[in-house]
Specification:
The protein is built from 45 helices and 41 strands. By secondary structure, it is of the alpha+beta class. It folds into seven domains: about 105-230, no CATH class; about 335-475, Barwin-like endoglucanases, CATH 2.40.40; about 495-655, Enzyme I, Chain A, domain 2 (Orthogonal Bundle); about 660-685 and about 695-780, RNA polymerase Rpb1 funnel domain (Topoisomerase I, Chain A, domain 4), CATH 1.10.132.30; about 810-915, no CATH class; about 955-1075, OB fold (Dihydrolipoamide Acetyltransferase, E2P); about 1085-1175, DNA polymerase, domain 1 (Orthogonal Bundle), CATH 1.10.150. It has a six-stranded mixed β-sheet. Strands 16-17-18-19 form a four-stranded mixed β-sheet. Strands 35-34-33-36 form a four-stranded antiparallel β-sheet, with no helix packed on it. The radius of gyration is 38 Å and the shape is globular.
């Protein structure tokens, strides 16, 4: 076997018949498989041991030679080599064909490769290959033409007329002759001349033919290799035959397909030996051709060959294709041992880096470690007895288990793994029962809950894997989401309500106005029953010396509550004292209004002091972010645990419950509803009199009921008692929102019909009153629609993520600085007056391209190439600067990736990104993961005139990334100039907009009801939209440059996500968009070797031109093109990555003809061949580190202990000998 670490690239090509024979260990001559009586493989058959190797390790077929000591001997009786049985997975055979056959991939694909090479139509080829027509291969001196098709009848007549003066052939032999007659060099020269003159369809065809002929020329593949004289037989263990109970056999479809080929081949040989009539031989040859076609790609031509039950047989091509094919099922996703799965349950007693592992699972997962330890301690004499001890569940085993799992992290994964936080490492803690326990704060990242979710657990075995798990994947270090850099671990539900209830304030609670010296005293007063959490009291700030109070505040009395004193006790010692949920308190200092002036009476102070709010979920999240910024990971994860424990404790003690009396009646409701009914009556009257249209009536009725619902909702909020448990749940952010309560206590409101339109009949009842039968029935539509939408959305979103990952998987941080001289100017993103993304969010964590100065003082805020952190970003906003030029992935010069400076901060850690970070995959996950939160359908804007249905949500994201023609397209102007005229053309239902530029004048047609962005007399720049709607990026890139197109696409992605309340960082979208513009289309080749009309990677194009300029030749010209992500993923330089993505056969056909070389730079290709991925610790720089272990008992690790596969095999063989 080949050692994967010995090669750095992988090439694919066409195999000649000689090559196929050289791979083979023998010819398969008979269609037999195994003897059904003896169950031994038949001689010369598809499972023959002489060809493919022995079925048992170190044993020949007849049993003369057994044991490893005869290794390598070929038995003189049965002819089988004594070796391992696994050679049956790698040894190939072959079938010598009695007549040549064409390879269906090259004949049938689109475009037909053979057709292009021979300049014939696929239809003509089909007639020749399947023996319907003859083709003239050599016209001699007859009036026939080369490659002319003649029917059987014609052929006979011409033979009588001309005798042997011409040559015509039929079948694959004819194709082989034609291919051998092609002079590639001559054809290429002729095509290059033709290209200079040809236009239109002719030019397209010439470019295609030139492309394919150049490919054959460059790759060294011979044209005639597309016709096969021998076909390979794949190893038998890859097409197994297994006995079922009841004596029947199950076999791989390939065996049936091979049997058909062998049967027909043998029959053809016999017919040829018998000199059978030509028509019979031809028929048999055609059947052989069809059998080989079915073997290679069943169903590609004609009806697929079916097996029992009319099921089409799976051919070689099907083995590779699709989700169940070799690429996706076995190479990109493998099953692993040392793994398990179980239901998860909540583990509130755990620390943030722990998980609860049930003892039976731990025993099984850590079995080899336990056995080793038992032998080491002398409890068991050998491995076998250690195993028995574990099965007996001896007392000692449990002691060992405790020690074994210490310091040994495990990985937990919950499907679907939408982003990298779907797999995290924890330290196991043994628990009773059978369910795994998960820390409640880890739920958010996994999107897990405890209603029956299951999770998988994996044990990292090697020291390296354990080290990576501990250093890179420990859950306690994953506090920020890679998507936007905000904390992903935030208290939820009970934890929130506990901390909220703890920090509430109430007037007149017991013990109000007491003053304490220390926090301990205050807590004691609560425990003694003198005060309550909500009691407002005073405390001497001198007792909290580490807190950053101002000098004036240091010796005063701080007015706060008992609960807030307790809450501040869990924060880091030097963190500011939090007394109110405001940003100023969080980032700055406490307001002086909370302190008593010397000699001031606390009771007087409290009479005038307003009540401060309790700490809600959002504020708790802000606290975590602030603590993370100041104190980094360890302190933050400890704070999270303290916050969790405090929340659970206090929410239990608070005794919050919900009863029907908490759902208060609204006094004003009947009046509001009665008023609305009257308004609806008036509108109906107006409609009856013909004053308004039916559409207007419908819109007004909907408006009336929406207003009524809003009014009821506002009244409800006013009437809620702050101590109402339902209100507290919603207000704190623990569970539910205001619309839930409107439905409980107000009215349910309007519902959507199954077709998506809103029904005019509102549900005026609420859940407390109960719904009538009709109301209940109306509301079921919405429930069903919700369920179906969610199911559709999940599938669509998952597929989008897969395409995104595939297009960006090779984008890795490759270097520190690419030294680019271009940047991108960013400003706040707005739509109309609505702020979509403020400047602060767009520049934070990025490097400035140019020095930024305060426009008034001239003081430097950020230097060139300096990272913009929070203080600088705040200073820029405060100075009123509206746009900043930053480094961006769009302008990065790094090949196959991005540099550190153009990427900026790693959002998941808050520090600058490191070389080796797989930012492409992270970007794809960050954009794909929130996909399920986006709405599924296009919004119908209730027929408001002029505003076409705009696509939003998930369909819009797909539209952008696939570079499709957008719905509701905006026309753009191709010239810079003035709008001279806008006139309506009712006949064509369009408005005609004329733009007068310096050089020429253009007229554009927009729909008559479109909303205009321009008016007569306006100055417009090229690429500007004339009417409202989405610009087609393919048009924009023609009119403007690629950077403008990239910036436009980025802003569209951000609009779509932010409108739905999802925050995704710019840099993720930048990486995806950059991948869509990696290619250029060659317009003119100059003196270079590039072919006009072909797509080329932008870096390869620059390289080719640089070489030309150095040699003093004319460089090629090209224009940038935009590809959708699916197309971009298939156009990648790696054929392994493309083949494992989509259209496997097409990608491989093309790669083979071109003799493509896969440089293995991306992640996917390395996973496929089984190398470490070239990102993170898999990069070369890390591979050269040798570990030195200091402990005495464990052996030192040096490079000689890193075994290659062959060394491990050798050791195993030696062990086998010793055991025998």
């Amino acid at each position: 076997m080949v050692d994967v670490n010995k090669f750095s690239s992988m090439q694919i090509g066409l195999a000649s018949s000689d090559k196929i024979r050289s791979w083979s260990f023998g010819e398969v001559k008979k269609p037999e498989t195994i003897n059904y009586r003896t169950l031994k493989p038949e001689k010369d058959g598809l499972f023959d041991e002489r060809i493919f190797g022995p079925t048992k390790d170190w044993e020949c077929a007849c049993g003369k030679y057994k044991r490893i000591r005869y290794k390598g001997i070929v038995c003189d009786r049965c002819g089988v080599e004594v070796t391992r049985a696994k050679v049956r997975r790698e040894r190939m055979g072959h079938i010598e064909l009695a007549a040549p056959v064409t390879h269906i991939w090259y004949f049938k694909g689109i475009p037909s490769r053979m057709g292009l090479v021979l300049d014939m139509s696929p239809r003509a080829l089909e007639e020749i290959i399947y023996f319907a027509s003859y083709v003239v291969t050599d016209p001699g001196d007859t009036p026939l033409e080369n490659k002319q098709l003649i029917s059987e009848q014609d052929y006979r007549e011409k033979k009588l007329e001309y005798g042997n003066r011409f040559e015509a052939k039929i079948g694959a032999e004819a194709i082989r002759t034609l291919l051998n007659n092609v002079d590639i060099n001559k054809e290429v020269a002729e095509l290059k001349d033709e290209l200079k003159k040809a236009t239109g369809q002719k030019r397209v065809r010439a470019v295609r033919r030139l492309d394919i002929l150049e490919a054959f020329l460059q790759s060294g593949n011979d044209l005639s290799w597309m016709v096969m004289e021998a076909i390979p037989v794949i190893p038998p263990d890859l097409r197994p035959m297994v006995q079922l109970e009841g004596g029947r056999f199950a076999t791989s479809d390939l065996n049936d397909l091979y049997r058909r080929v062998i049967n027909r081949n043998n029959r053809l040989k016999r017919l040829l030996d018998l000199h059978a009539p030509g028509i019979i031989v031809q028929n048999e040859k055609r059947m052989l051709q069809e059998a080989v076609d079915a073997l290679i790609d069943n169903g590609r031509r004609g009806r697929p060959v079916a097996g029992p039950g009319n099921r089409p047989l799976k051919s070689l091509s099907h083995m590779l294709k699709g989700k169940q094919g070799r690429f996706r099922q076995n190479l990109l996703g493998k099953r692993v041992d040392y793994s398990g799965r179980s239901v998860i349950d909540v583990g509130p007693f755990l620390k943030f880096n722990q998980m609860g592992l049930p003892v039976p699972m731990a025993m099984e997962l850590f079995k080899p470690f336990i056995m080793k330890e038992l032998v080491k301690r002398g409890s068991a004499s050998n491995i076998k007895s250690a195993k028995r001890q574990i099965e007996r569940k001896d007392e000692e085993v449990f002691d060992v288990l405790d020690d074994v799992i210490k310091e040994h992290p495990v990985l937990l994964n919950r499907a679907p793994t939408l982003h990298r936080l779907g797999i995290q490492a924890f330290e196991p803690v043994l628990v009773s029962g059978k369910s795994m326990r998960l820390h409640p704060l880890a739920c958010e990242a996994y999107n897990a809950d405890f209603d029956g979710d299951q999770m998988a657990i994996h044990v990292p075995l090697s020291d390296e894997a354990q080290a990576e798990s501990r250093l890179l994947m420990l859950a306690a270090t994953h506090i920020l989401a890679p998507r936007d850099g905000n904390p992903i671990v935030a208290p939820s539900q009970d934890m929130v309500i506990g901390n909220y209830y703890l920090t509430m304030e109430e007037e007149g609670r017991e013990g109000e106005g007491m003053i304490f010296n220390t926090p301990e005293e205050a807590k004691l007063s609560y425990q003694s029953g003198l005060t309550h959490w909500h009691t407002r009291v005073g405390i001497a700030t001198s007792s909290m010396r580490e807190k950053p109070f101002t000098d004036e505040q240091k010796d005063k009395i701080l007015v706060t509550t008992i609960g807030k004193i307790i809450f501040n006790g869990i924060l880091p010692k030097t963190f500011q004292y939090l007394n109110e949920p405001t940003d100023t308190n969080l980032h700055g200092h406490l307001s002086d209004s909370f302190f008593l002036e010397p000699g001031e009476d606390i009771h007087e102070h409290l009479k005038n002091a307003p009540l401060n709010g309790a700490f809600k979920k959002g504020f708790l999240s802000d606290i975590i972010a602030e603590v993370y910024k100041k104190y980094k990971v360890t302190e933050t994860s400890q704070l999270l645990d303290r916050m969790k424990d405090l929340g659970y404790n206090e929410s239990t003690k608070s005794g919050l419950t919900v009863g029907i009396t908490d759902v208060t009646d609204l006094k004003s409701k009947p009046q509001i509803i009665a008023d609305s009914h009257k308004k609806v009556e008036n509108v109906t009257k107006q409609f009856r009199r013909g004053l308004i249209t039916d559409q207007e009536r419908y819109e007004r009725v909907i408006g009336i009921w929406s207003d009524a619902k809003d009014e009821i909702q506002n009244d409800l909020l006013k009437n809620f008692d702050p101590q109402n448990p339902i209100f507290m749940m919603s207000d704190s952010g623990a569970r539910g929102n205001i619309s839930n309560f409107t439905q409980l206590a107000g009215m349910r409101g309007l519902m959507a019909a199954p077709n998506g339109e809103i029904m005019e009949l509102p549900i005026t009842a609420n859940f407390r009153e109960g719904l009538s039968v009709l109301e209940m029935f109306i509301s079921t539509h919405g429930a069903r629609k919700g369920m179906t939408d969610t199911a559709l959305k999940t599938a669509n979103s998952g597929y989008l993520t897969r395409r995104l990952v595939d297009v960006a998987q090779d984008v890795i941080i490759r270097e520190e600085d690419c030294n680019t001289d271009r940047g991108v100017i960013v400003a706040a993103l707005k739509q109309g007056n609505e702020m979509i993304e403020p400047l602060y969010d767009r520049i934070i964590g990025r490097y400035a391209m140019k020095t930024v100065k305060n426009p008034e003082t001239g003081e430097v805020i950020v230097k060139h190439n300096q990272m913009i952190n929070e203080p600088e970003a705040e200073a820029i906003e405060a100075a009123g600067i509206e746009e900043v030029e930053i480094r961006s992935a769009f302008t990065c010069n790094t090949v196959h990736g991005v540099c550190e400076k153009c990427y900026g901060r790693n959002l998941a850690t808050g520090s600058p990104v490191e070389v080796g970070e797989a930012v492409g995959t992270v970007a794809a996950q960050s954009i794909g993961e929130p996909g399920t939160q986006l709405t599924m359908r296009n919004f119908h804007t209730g027929g408001v005139a002029g505003n076409a249905d705009i696509t939003q949500g998930l369909p819009r994201v797909q539209e952008i990334f696939e570079a499709r023609n957008p719905k509701g397209k905006a026309e753009i102007t191709e010239v810079t100039g003035t709008v001279s005229l806008i006139e309506e053309n009712p006949a064509e239902r369009v408005k005609e907009v004329t733009v007068k530029g310096d050089a020429d004048t253009r007229t554009y047609k927009v729909p008559i009801n479109a909303r205009m962005n321009v008016a007569e007399g306006d100055f417009v720049r090229r690429g500007q939209a004339i009417n409202e709607g989405s610009i087609d990026p393919k048009e924009l890139i023609k009119v403007r440059d690629s950077l403008s197109t990239e910036v436009y696409l980025l802003s569209e992605v951000q609009k779509t996500y932010r409108m739905q309340g999802v925050e995704v960082s710019d840099k993720h979208a930048e990486i995806m968009v950059r991948q869509m513009l990696r290619k250029v289309r060659i317009m003119d080749s100059g003196d270079t070797d590039v072919l006009p009309g072909t797509l080329m990677d932008i870096n390869d194009f620059k390289e080719a031109n640089a070489d030309a300029v150095i040699s003093g030749k004319i460089p090629a010209t090209a224009r940038p093109v935009i590809l959708g992500i699916t197309k971009a993923a298939l156009e990648t330089n790696s054929f392994l990555s493309a083949a494992s993505f989509q259209e496997t056969t097409r990608v491989l056909t093309d790669a083979a003809i071109r003799g493509k070389n896969d440089p293995l730079v991306g992640l996917k290709e390395n996973v496929i061949i089984g190398k470490l991925i070239p990102a993170g610790t898999g990069m070369k720089t890390y591979g050269e580190i040798n570990a030195k272990v200091e402990e005495q008992e464990s052996p030192k690790v040096d490079s000689n202990d890193v075994y290659s596969i062959s060394q491990i095999e050798k050791r195993m063989n030696e062990e086998d000998v010793n055991n025998q």
